[in-house]
Amino acid sequence: MRYCIVGAGFSGAIMARALAEAGHKVLLLDERPHVAGNCHTSRDGETGVMVHRFGPHIFHTADERAWTYINRFGVMKPYVNRVKAQSQGRIYSLPINLMTINQFFGTTLRPDEARQFIAARADQSITAPQSFEEQALSMIGPELYRAFFHGYTKKQWGVSPTELPASILNRLPVRFNYDDNYFSHPWQGMPQDGYTAIIENILKAEGIELRLGQSFETVDERFAHVFYTGPIDRYFSYSLGRLGYRTLDFEAFVADGDYQGTAVMNYCDETVPYTRITEHKHFAPWEQDRFTRTVCFREYSRQAGADDVPYYPIRQVGEKALLTRYIERARATPGVSFMGRLGTYRYLDMDVTISEALAASDRVLDIARQGGVIPTFFVDPS
């Protein structure tokens, strides 16, 4: 018998490659007509620009193994994510840094002065923030919170920031210097030929049968084990109910020249219906000057329906309770392991997905050599 892997994104491709290199046979399925999942990239036929079809994916990591692995299958070019934000009729840099603070408040503060200035505006009475809003107010005070986070967060998540957990804001730093690099990881870059080419290269191994445009539900074959990277609730036919996701709608448009001068422009005001505009030729600065036209996406966030692409797991109280029930069901189901963002119902950056898939592959190969039972989960999804 052979192994079955459901989903040809990074999680599935890495597991398939590891099994194939160890001499095992693998059937890799994806119901989409392409590999790479939501990381799928392709050239725009009209302009030639490399487009991130399901929204921008910027690679950044502190895991040297993940960085080495992705470079094994493609050329990673230097790329620094410098996000701009439009708020109240002006343009600022994100994450909030010394330039943002001085420009917003019309000051010329030094780092130590800026720390004291922001601390004086922060709500010191909030000692144990429970919500996104409380966390923001306790960190940066009402002015910066209202300007950059309140409206944007309502659009992104579809609920008031008072209903979101404080942990969401932990990933958004405040810097008291002029560093406007959105990420702080030592390795950052973009693939020269796009993410789809990297996944295609990972899958160039004897022993992997790739079937695109076919869902797992239509396969009638017994397998040694199934690695499932699709939505965990879908595996069980949503028998306990559907887990909640936010999805994204993209409004693509083409313009002459350079539309906004940067890759990502956030629109923080609640009155603007979209959350951001991404201009895709700026994600490849080594080639952007060769294009006379440009491709942009306006990005709208909303609750995912049954036929929508699931992007961001909501993981509020109701969803977490339902997830617990699916985890129990999964642990009682032999012969299947759940991996990746959808399989574990977690928000995962690309590098974490790769790191977890590499670690899972190591464990599976050890079990295959020594005997034993492949676990249902390789990380705790709860």
Automatic annotation (TrEMBL):
Q: Which GO terms describe its molecular function?
A: flavin adenine dinucleotide binding; UDP-galactopyranose mutase activity
Keywords of this protein's UniProt record, alphabetized?
FAD, Flavoprotein, Isomerase
* Entry annotated with the keyword Flavoprotein: yes
Do you know which InterPro entries this protein is assigned to?
A: UDP-GALP_mutase, UDP-GalPyranose_mutase_C
Q: Which residues belong to any copy of the UDP-galactopyranose mutase C-terminal domain? A: 147-347
**Gene Ontology CC:** cytosol
The positions making up the signal sequence are none
One Pfam annotation reads GLF
Give the protein's cofactors: FAD
Might you give the EC number(s) for this enzyme? 5.4.99.9
- Which family is annotated? Belongs to the UDP-galactopyranose/dTDP-fucopyranose mutase family.
Put simply, this protein is called UDP-galactopyranose mutase
Q: Which organism is it from?
A: Gluconacetobacter azotocaptans
